[in-house]
Amino acid sequence: MAHTKAQRAVKGNRDSISKRLGVKLYGGQQAKPGNIIVSQRGAKVNAGNNVYMSRVHTLHAKVAGTVEFFKKLGKQYVKVV
Which one of 6, 26, 36, 77 is CB 3.0 to 4.6 Å from 48, fit for a cystine? Predict the structure, then answer.
């Protein structure tokens, strides 16, 4: 006999939907103005030249160009060249 509870969600069956965070444009890829480069919570990657950070720490391209990631003083940055 199957041990199925009444017709409602099981107690341990809850999970949040994924937020689709992460790198959207990698190094060497072309970016247009306004394109999202990195979607993140907290400033794990910082904004370099021609990149701006929105209120939720998402990094966007200011100008058209090529995406480049680099490290400076132990912190990771992204710039558009």
Answer: 77
Closest by CA to 81, choosing from 59, 51, 58, 42, is: 51
* DSSP code, position 7: S
Class of domain 22-80: mainly beta
Burial class (CB in 10 A: 0-12, 13-18, 19+), 61: buried
pLDDT per residue as tens digits for the range 10-51: 677 778 899 999 999 999 999 999 999 999 999 999 999 999
d(C-alpha 6, C-alpha 32), whole Å: 53
Domain boundaries, the chain: 22-80
